Every structure is written in structure tokens, then in C-alpha cells.
TrEMBL record:
Gene3D superfamilies: 3.40.190.290, Winged helix-like DNA-binding domain superfamily/Winged helix DNA-binding domain (1.10.10.10). Belongs to the LysR transcriptional regulatory family. It comes from Zooshikella ganghwensis. Pfam families: HTH_1 (PF00126), LysR_substrate (PF03466). Residues 3-59 form the HTH lysR-type domain. This is LysR family transcriptional regulator ArgP.
Length: 300
């Protein structure tokens, strides 16, 4: 049996847009035609590929087909670029990847700036935490992602890049207000901290480990910006766990103080890609493996 990519494309658009109607508009066909294409694909595969719910959900086999389609489309675009056959006069090759906000704000772009300067590559970056990014790779939404998980997904491979050390820092003024008698569990229940979003467990993990408590309660600001984290701490609004490369100079000059000099939270970062990556992803992987050690801490 040969795969019919026209049928898989209909499945992909329904999953991406969460709507048969919107998928039909995107493909310039009727909603009934979209439904028939997916039904035909399911009959060929021999099992359901889409759970008809609100919104529609891909099955595991459906996700695998979408991932395969993404790979084929990327390889096709690379070939067209190599042959100087450009659609819409666009000579650039788009790559979809997902990385966490801290990596984007610190080490990731310096690692790939020479690659982007020498190759016709356009990045489409989705900012997700290190755990949720894997779901995007699994669904085929991205061709590569940064994650804390060392084990590759089925059909994928992984490369260790290095560690980020998160230092617990505050300004001298903030410390005088909230931690004048030390960094204690009681004081953390009164001092405002910062977390990225409701899925961010970094600060909680650190406090639980540091104080040896099964759970902790503390007031938090939710600020989804790595750069804003640093600004908020420097302006004595809160304290936070911030990557070592962002705060090292501020600690050296005394603008910020490391509240727990002997303790920090570590996140190991891994680059995940499909097992058979495109040439552009291979180049991106090579750049990351070559330069990440200049910014990250290597535990090996």
C-alpha cells in the first residue's frame, strides 16, 4: 500500500485547526470532502486516526502519520531550494522548532547566529517549557525541540547539550525587606517570588529540596518572560531562580545577591529531533552541539 499524502494532509489540517469546517476552507474543498478523505485514510490504515470529539483529537497512529507528513514536506522543500525551484519567489527554508523561554533568552541564538548568516533558513519558534515541547515533536508540529527528558521518543533521537544552573537571587533592598534574618521557610511564605506560568515547577522544586519539606506555600507573580524576570528582581519587586549566565555579572558587582550560594536548581537540556532529520535540522544540530558548551555547564 502506498500512502496518499492528500488524505494525510486533510487529517493534518483538521488536527491543526481543530475543525473540519476550517480545514475545508484551507484546502478549498467541502467539509464533506474532508470527512471522506479522512474516512478513506482510516479504511486504508485499518483503524481510527481521529477521535471525533470537540475539538477533534488524533490517535497515536494519526499523530505518527502527521509527523511523517511533516518530514516529507520539509525534505521536499529542501530539495526545491537545492534545485533553485522556489514557490512564491521564496528561497528560504522554514524550520519549525520548540524551545523553552530561558534558552531563547540566553544561549540558543548565539549558538546558531553563524548558521543563519550562512544558510537560507527561516526559524519558526514555539516557546514551550522543556516538558511540553516534546508533545509538539510527537504530534509532528515541530522538527526539533529542547527538553529536559533524556530518553528519545519513538522514531526520534536526542543529544545532550549541557546544564543550566538556576541561582536563587534577590536585590540587597529586597533582602533587607524580606530576608533580613535569613532565607528561612517562614520568610519565603511572605516574600513574593516569580514563576513563568502555572506549569512552571522550578521554584517549588527548589524550595522543597532546599528545606526538605514535602510541600511549600509561597506568594508568586506569574510573568511569562525570561528578560522580565531579571528586571523584576533588579527592581526589588520579587526574588527568583534565574539562569547562571543571566545573573553572574550582577552577582559579581553586588547588584544581586545569591541567597543560597551552595545550592542551585539544575536543568539538563537535550536536543530532540526526528530519527531521520532533514539537512537543515542536521546543520542546526551540528551548530548546537558545537557551541552549546560555551554557555551551558557540561556535567560529563
Amino acid at each position: 500500500m502506498k500512502l496518499d499524502y492528500k488524505l494525510i494532509e486533510a487529517l493534518a489540517w483538521v488536527a491543526k485547526l481543530a475543525s473540519f469546517e476550517k480545514a475545508a476552507q484551507k484546502l478549498f474543498i467541502t467539509q464533506s470532502a474532508v470527512s471522506q478523505r479522512i474516512k478513506q485514510l482510516e479504511e486504508r490504515i485499518g483503524e481510527p486516526l481521529l477521535i471525533r470529539a470537540t475539538p477533534p483529537q488524533l490517535t497515536a497512529r494519526g499523530q505518527r502519520l502527521i509527523c511523517h507528513l511533516q518530514q516529507v514536506q520539509l525534505l521536499e522543500q529542501e530539495l526545491l531550494t537545492e534545485l533553485d525551484i522556489f514557490e512564491g519567489e521564496n528561497p528560504f527554508l522554514p524550520i519549525n522548532i520548540s524551545i523553552n523561554a530561558d534558552s531563547l533568552a540566553t544561549w540558543f541564538l548565539p549558538c546558531i547566529e553563524s548558521l543563519l548568516a550562512s544558510h537560507r533558513i527561516l526559524l519558526s519558534i514555539q516557546v514551550e517549557d522543556e516538558l511540553r515541547a516534546l508533545q509538539l515533536l510527537k504530534r509532528g508540529d515541530v522538527a526539533g525541540c529542547i527538553s529536559c527528558q533524556s530518553t528519545p521518543l519513538p522514531g526520534c533521537k536526542t543529544h545532550y547539550l549541557g546544564d543550566i544552573h538556576y541561582y536563587c537571587v534577590a536585590s540587597p533592598q529586597f533582602i533587607a525587606r524580606y530576608f533580613k534574618d535569613g532565607f528561612t521557610l517562614a520568610n519565603t511564605q511572605k516574600a513574593p517570588a516569580i514563576i513563568f506560568n502555572q506549569f512552571d515547577t522550578l521554584h517549588e522544586d527548589f524550595l522543597i529540596q532546599f528545606f526538605g519539606e514535602p510541600q511549600v506555600n509561597y506568594p508568586t507573580h506569574l510573568i511569562p518572560s525570561s528578560d522580565a524576570f531579571l528586571a523584576v528582581v533588579e527592581n526589588s519587586i520579587a526574588y527568583a531562580l534565574i539562569p547562571h549566565m543571566q545573573v553572574s555579572s550582577a552577582i559579581e558587582t553586588g547588584r544581586l545577591i545569591n541567597l543560597t550560594p551552595q545550592h542551585y536548581e539544575t536543568r539538563s537540556l537535550y536536543w530532540h529531533t526526528w530519527h531521520t532529520p532533514s539537512q537543515a535540522i542536521k546543520l542546526l544540530t551540528k551548530s548546537l552541539k558545537k557551541k552549546a558548551h560555551l554557555f551551558l555547564i557540561n556535567k560529563k
